[in-house]
Design goal:
Radius of gyration: 18 Å
Strand content: 5-15%
Low-confidence stretches: none
Shape: globular
Distance between the termini: 56 Å
Number of strands: 6
Structural class: alpha/beta
Order of helices and strands: HHEHHEHEHEEHE
Strand order of the largest sheet: 1-6-5-2
Length: about 260
């Protein structure tokens, strides 16, 4: 059944690529036959590589991880990566989530890059023993009716690549000011009581992959993880496009 679903997704991806040409998420240029790993235009490759978070695992000392098993990000939240995320969230171009999720699959989970633009990366993990039982997106602070948030779009694409179902049990109990407007202490204090799982959610014995677009202090990811653990999950791992950390000196732009 999983193989049939995957073939269907590949066919769908190829058809959509023909009808709606893919664009580089970092600059918006059309992706052609020379696209690197099917997701990045050649002009953006040096910048994309400069901003990669290697290794992807995030250090606990720089984030407030109190309920997560571990967390990872594909990039540092800076420059072209920051622009790509904002293009999805504020620029009204959510379709770039496909390429960003594909980069997450390759850089975080070791999937083989897509052979052509629009195709799925190939995940070679142990299909008889999945990494996770399900993928859970972080809910948006201010949801718009009928408009999926960026974490949900990322989760759906990662689901197609990794072969893991998406579930959406989380909701925000007390929506307030956006996290970006709060300092570290305010983020931690508000987030701890902000998230919960819907009544009847049963994640007993499940290992959960929590997906978000950006990890800043780790307050949101940890609060979501705590809610998932209360619903029965045995472990929660977070994955994001980018993390807010200081770029290593070797990866900082050189002044001219």
């Amino acid at each position: 059944m999983a193989s049939i679903e995957r073939r269907t997704e590949v066919t769908r991806a190829r058809l959509l690529a023909l009808l709606f040409p893919r664009r580089c998420p970092f600059c918006g240029a059309l992706l052609g036959a020379d696209a690197v790993q099917g997701t990045v235009c050649p002009a953006c490759l040096p910048e994309e590589m400069r901003l990669q978070h290697l290794p992807p695992r995030l250090p606990e000392g720089e984030h407030a991880f109190y309920a997560l098993g571990e967390a990872a990000a594909a990039y540092y939240y800076a420059d072209a990566v920051r622009g790509a995320i904002l293009r999805c969230k504020r620029g009204g171009r959510p379709w770039y989530a496909q390429e960003l999720a594909d980069r997450m699959a390759v850089l975080i989970f070791g999937a083989l890059p897509a052979r052509r633009v629009g195709e799925l990366p190939q995940y070679r993990g142990l299909h008889t023993l999945p990494l996770y039982s399900c993928i859970v997106p972080v809910p948006p602070n201010r949801p718009r009716p009928g408009v999926p948030g960026l974490p949900l779009l990322l989760a759906r694409r990662l689901s197609a690549v990794l072969g893991i179902p998406v579930v959406t049990p989380l909701y925000i109990k007390n929506p307030g000011r956006p996290q970006k407007e709060l300092n570290r202490e305010e983020r931690l204090r508000r987030a701890k009581a902000a998230f919960a799982c819907r009544p009847g959610t049963d994640l007993t014995g499940k290992r959960v992959l929590l997906v978000d677009d950006i990890i800043t202090t780790g307050a949101t990811a940890s609060a979501c993880a705590a809610a998932l653990l209360q619903a029965g999950a045995i472990e929660v791992t977070a994955a994001a496009i980018a993390a807010t950390e200081e770029l290593p000196k070797a990866q900082q732009k050189k002044e001219r």
